[in-house]
Amino acid sequence: MELLRSHLAKVRIPEPTNRIHKEECCISFDTPRSEGGLYVDMCSFLGFGKDFVKWNFERTGNPVYLHIQQERKLVPEDRPLKKPTLLAIGVEGGFDNQEPEYETTYNIVILPDYISLPFPSVELPEKVRLAADGIILAEGTAKKEQLAAWTAEKKKISEYALTLQQLDNGVVVPSSGWKCSKCDKTENLWMNLTDGTILCGRKNWDGTGGNNHAIEHYEQTKYPLAVKLGTITADLESADVFSYPEDDSVEDPMLAQHLSHFGIDFSSLQKTEMTTAERELDQNVNYDWNRIQENDKDAELLFGPGYTGLVNLGNSCYMASIMQVMFSAHSFISRYYENRSLREAFDTSPADPTVDLNTQLTKLGHGLLSGKYSVPPQVKDEDGKTQNDKQEGIPPHMFKTVIAAKHPEFSSMRQQDALEFLLHLFDQVERANVGTPDLDPCRSFKFIIEERLQCPSGKVAYNRRSDYILSLNIPLHEATNKEQLEAFQKKKADLGLEGKEISNDEIVRPRVPLEACLSSFSAPEEVQDFYSTALNAKTTAIKTAGLTTFPDYLVLHMRKFVMEAGWVPKKLDVYIDVPDTIDITHMRSKGLQPGEELLPEAAPNEEENDTSMELVASEDIVGQLASMGFNYLHCQKAAIKTSNAGVEEAMTWLLSHMEDPDIDDPISSGSAKAPPVDEGSMQTLVSFGFPEDLARKALKASGGNIEKATDWIFSNPEASSSSMDTDSGNAAASSSTAQIDEAAAVPDGSGRYKLMGMVSHIGTSTHCGHYVAHVVKDGRWVIFNDSKVAASVDPPKDMAYLYFFQCY
């Protein structure tokens, strides 16, 4: 005990705002239920598994830990499931009672000799007892951040909070023993912040819940705000305040004052009720995803290295499917598993490893690939039978938190587009490896697209950009089963006239070869309102595209979501015939050819004063979008950002960028007085492979912002092409040199690929439904469906949303 007292300076009592990592190790997926339990540093509140706690002691010198060990209780196999009868947490009949039951033990452990002292114990110093109690009672970081994310958007401050008038009616609310003033309900109670009346909440669709007395009280009195009793603790931000006129959960910055008006001391209250966000989270996480997809019950479940599932955190299947494919690619395996140990990752991480992306990717890589967490379940019931034959999987809480930090969508609990997440992942990983580009695993996915523009003068321009995804249109007119489709449509129409519907097993879907989709990428297309420096006028140019480099891994995105009548997003019900191998060597672009002449540059005085150097939004596209009710400026930006490719492309861009913080910023123009260009920013763009004059122009047009400047370059092909040297003696050399500079940082393979993975989507929109991954491992297809990993009986090669090919 004296040894413990000598270390009291290394013990902290947690505050309500501290992040407590008591559910999971920060460098592995060990939990209190793992062998050896979890050690929580009583100074930093970071959690460590038994194999990693010594690393933390050696690094920080923090010797005192709260050791948490959970052992699963044995239960009969035929135990009936209990249905929650109370809207409460941690009480008989409340939520979470369907989960397996665990016996939890606590000890205070002192390193380096692992001296263990039982907890609770009155013999322990008071500071240690208070600190341990604080850790045990605190909401764990994973759960707290999950709930914060499920709230989706930060609760807005109620417009009624600051001016709320409270009645001096002498009401004093006790700290417990609440009951609805109009019925006998004692759960789901709300206190009106104007008069202190305690009333029950709304009645649920199935008859449970309250009797609607709280909302009826509002309708009679118009007193606007109420707080849910049982959600009030010392952390007032977690209290559930509802505004009836705003019909939403809100923030009340005056809540402490409003509560004290009725004699409530919030610092002494304990949480006993679920907030609205917690209730939604509970319903979502427990949703049975297997109901919305085909399941072969006889599929062989797989275990071992490389066969580890990922727990669905609630609408996180988009992330799980992408990460399973990424950690089947050698570049990610090498960077975050084979060539990077957990010890190296921990030693080079910041003080808090949970906020470092490279550390969490290493943790995820070892979790997925080591096989440590992919073992057949060993839990037996009283009869000696295995209770569950599916692995538990690993929950990627910390990875999701750091990869989604500050991103308004991925940090929420809403379903997301797997493609958008993949691009966000590439962007974040590239940033995390900016000082060591040779280690960046995303380089193996990167390639250079070259676009050739030819105006009626016969002169050409070449524009190059790097990308990670080859996005393909689906030419339905190239379907190989047109006769069957025509017969199906006729039969459907005939049955419609009779008031009948066609059965599901009679539906015929178009079958389009992947080769047709690849051909559509390279097919010539018209570019309206192209400013030709040869003609000094706007005209229509012909654009073709190809690849100047072939990546190690080629990702094909099938554009299955289009705009139907009324401009409503619709998912194409189509099959894509995808072979196991493809050869795209014919898609290689070779740059300026003998006999071709580049478009001349604009006159020097036009570079800063003439908007012809910039792409002008097509009035036809802008007009159609504006007629649908969209903001005119937003429509112009959408047209420019998609290079006037068409209304559909502009609409797609607009729908996905409505919440951009700069969506209302004026469009940068050459006629505007440009700010001085920062030389550091310009050199950064030059290091990306862009010519110096183009980098300078882009920074001027984007106000000096590097990200916007990069986007501007990609969105203004003629600006890029006109930046080339057009002297007759070195035009071709300039073009090829620019290509070499940009292509130097990416691999260039043979152009022949074999299919190695797919991400499939089930649902009517990328922002709803479910994502599943299929990957070729050890010569066979494997399905990764969240935590379930099994041999694939019938991989849906004709139905995927994203295809991943490996160069050979």
From TrEMBL:
Segments of skewed composition (Basic and acidic residues): 379-392
Its EC number(s): 3.4.19.12
Protein's UniProt keywords contain Metal-binding: yes
Binding-site residues for Zn(2+), renumbered to this chain: 180, 183, 200, 213
Start and end residues of each UBA domain: 616-657, 676-716
Active-site annotation: 317, 770
One GO BP: proteolysis
Catalytic reactions of this protein: Thiol-dependent hydrolysis of ester, thioester, amide, peptide and isopeptide bonds formed by the C-terminal Gly of ubiquitin (a 76-residue protein attached to proteins as an intracellular targeting signal)
Gene Ontology MF annotations: cysteine-type deubiquitinase activity; zinc ion binding
Superkingdom classification of source: Eukaryota
InterPro entries on file: Papain-like_cys_pep_sf, Peptidase_C19_UCH, Ub_carboxyl-term_hydrolase, UBA, UBA-like_sf, Ubiquitinyl_hydrolase, UBP13_Znf-UBP_var, USP
SUPFAM superfamilies: Cysteine proteinases, RING/U-box, UBA-like
UniProt keyword annotations, A-Z: Hydrolase, Metal-binding, Protease, Repeat, Thiol protease, Ubl conjugation pathway, Zinc, Zinc-finger
Every UBP-type domain range: 156-266
UniProt biased composition (Polar residues): 717-739
SMART domains: UBA (SM00165), ZnF_UBP (SM00290)
Family of this protein: Belongs to the peptidase C19 family.
Job description of the protein: Recognizes and hydrolyzes the peptide bond at the C-terminal Gly of ubiquitin. Involved in the processing of poly-ubiquitin precursors as well as that of ubiquitinated proteins.
Protein name from the UniProt record: Ubiquitin carboxyl-terminal hydrolase
Lineage: Eukaryota, Viridiplantae, Streptophyta, Embryophyta, Tracheophyta
